[in-house]
Amino acid sequence: MDEVVVVKVRSWEDSDCCTHDELIVNGKSIFGVHPLYECPEDAIIGRDLISCSEIASFLENFLKENQRKKVRFEYVEGEEEE
Fold this sequence. Notes:
82 residues
């Protein structure tokens, strides 16, 4: 039986109506993207913003680790979790 890797993209709005996104693979949070309105001076790639290098590294490792496995993508929109 083939193992299925679940890749979930979860999006939600906070109480300030700002959107947040999270990438979750098999229940483990991999990346999160959040507004920087509290510290806009920290909007630096590689610090508070994900870099293309981080994405490429994730993809390379993901493909190596999950060869011959089926991948299911789920997109979930909802409210901010308490």
